[in-house]
Amino acid sequence: MGDIVDHEEEFLSLRLAILNNSSCCDQRNINKIKKRKRRELEFINTWDLNESCEGKIFSLLELRESMLKIDVKKKGGVVEDGKGLHLIHSLLISATSINENSIDLAVDNLRELYQNVSLKGDSVQRVAAYFADGLIARLLTRKSPFYDMIMKPPTQEEEFLAFTEFYKVSPFYQFAHFTANQAILESFEKELEYNNGLLHVIDFDISYGFQWPSLIQSLSENATTSNRISLRITGYGKTIDELRETETRLVSFAKCFRNLSFEFQGVLSRYKLSNLTKRKNETLAVNLIFHLNSLSTYSKISETLKEVHDLCPSIVTIVEQEGCKIPQTFMPRFMESLHYFAAMFDSLDDCLPIDSIKRLSIEKNHLGKEIKNMLNYDHKEGANNNVYSSSRYEQMETWKGRMESHGFLGIPLSCKNIMQAKLLLKIRSHFNSTIQLDGGNGGFRVLEIEDPRAISLAWQDRSIVSSKLSAESSQLTNQFYDRSFNVPAQLYPSLEDMSCVHHFTLIIL
């Protein structure tokens, strides 16, 4: 609140300067005032705002600060259905108004939103609060300190904690990793006659290595004294610290298993594929889970797929959120994002109680961050800036066409893979959950998709992620491409937690 007061004083001096401008006789003073005016007006976006609108924006920021301190229990608890719909309606009016440069109307509706939303309320109140933040950020330029205040990313520690908690409580990542790992395992087993028990995985986004304990355990169960298995993972990460911590966790985990040798090589994400050594006859798997959607341009996606194709891997795994993000237009992106994240926030109510500190961490430092970035990735000069990057969510058919154009053809998921995904979701049900394996209403659902056979994880009637396999179009044999689209993965809350990891192997049987 102190920052807001300080900047209110700055804008007050601006308004006083404007009023005094007419009485200034000295041209030098006039020029100084105009220069100060231009500089301070840069804090607010390029629209021609009058004094009344400036005041409304300051008032809106103050109201936001008050909202962050509200205890929803004292305020009255969960909103009624009708009020929830009203919040969504206000969001749509705000977004449309900003898109049409009707700033007064946008500010008025955002003000009403901040009076009725809460980060500790029901799923509608919570998701509306983060969308309101994303919209108010669009009223400001990146030079504004208020923009940084709203868009400030979490610390590395906060981001890791949020990711870990989300991984524990939701089947989202669990389902994705589970499906991809099963496909990698099946590809490896098909080549056992000539791969000498060697498996090399290149992971383009290591994400703390949470995906790999299940694969390590599954491989170890197939290993014997006379038929040892070697797993080598080359993982790309954002920072050296992340790579070192990931290596420590995975190496420590792998030591628990006999007849399995494990190697990890960390590579910073900014480096391209180069000098990768491929051992004779080894099964090479390329893991692109949640990676392609993070690339800023289609040319970078194409470049990555060409590099992967040149490696001639036995299998490529891809998992991406299924959506429809149209970079050129704001409103379609807003609508798609609202539907998607409303489902995600609603699903968290199935996983955690409303007063959970863990839920607040997940939504603030993981989902909420993604919402604000999604709404502002094309924001003025920030469109080509990586500070506030956004993921690229597209429909399954779009990813399918892109993969086929780079030499990959679709093949069906195995029956075992589909069965395991369904059983995994069943054992991961929560206290408020209604699990639907096919059709029905409510809760998490696993949907089977034909042509070719694939599966999708859905919350109620909204598909969250989809999983699919593709084969590389090549004269080489035993080359497959696993295309998972937002398929949540297997449960590994922490590398020390062995209980659920073992269950997944039993489910296979």
UniProtKB/TrEMBL annotation:
PROSITE patterns: GRAS
One Pfam family in the UniProt entry: GRAS
One GO term (biological process): regulation of DNA-templated transcription
Alphabetically ordered keywords of this record: Transcription, Transcription regulation
InterPro entries recorded: TF_GRAS
UniProt motif VHIID: location: 199-203
A GO CC term attached to the entry: nucleus
GO MF, one annotated term: sequence-specific DNA binding
Chain positions covered by the region annotation SAW: 376-471
Record family assignment: Belongs to the GRAS family.
Record-given protein name: Uncharacterized protein
